[in-house]
Input
Amino acid sequence: MDEATFKERVKRLMEINKVVVKLDPAIRGQAFALLEGYVGTGKISAHRPESSEKEETQEPVDTADLDADLEAFVGTLTAEPGTPADSAKALAAFMYKRYGKAPVTPEDIDELAGKAGWTVPRRIDMTLKGAKINGRTLFRQEGKSFVPTVQGEAFFKETYKVKKGKLPKPGTQATTP
Output
């Protein structure tokens, strides 16, 4: 992380702190969890600060093609997962592989299912909301989106052999006023 990115994230954390500190202590943790995505949405450069002056004009590029990545991920699985709910969890794992803990919507999963040719439940939101392994929830709901919990991340890594992605999710860039 370069110094400019660090300073931007600190600035955003301070903004969030001003809001969260005014809240009831019982909900501060949940409030921060809702706003933590705002911290990491600043421009993150893949270049080192000492690289060149051209860095300022270059935008980070999503070099990985979504369709090719999805095809490769589906190819690593021997067959379509056993149930539609398993398919939804597998596609959530694919999103985790690309975008890390970025919020996932049921529409994202449904779109990927269409591209993969997989069947998913009609109410993907209820599937993700109720997804548990050994009594522990796999997703935390944030509005209409879902974020993998620590147990969810471990489940993805163990079951689908994926690592946490680092690409910025398209359409999640926050605009600063």
In short: The CA atoms of residues 106 and 126 lie 9 Å apart. The longest strand covers residues 139-142. Residues 42-64 have pLDDT under 50 and may be disordered. The helical segments are 3-20, 28-39, 66-76, 84-99, 106-116, 124-130, 150-160.
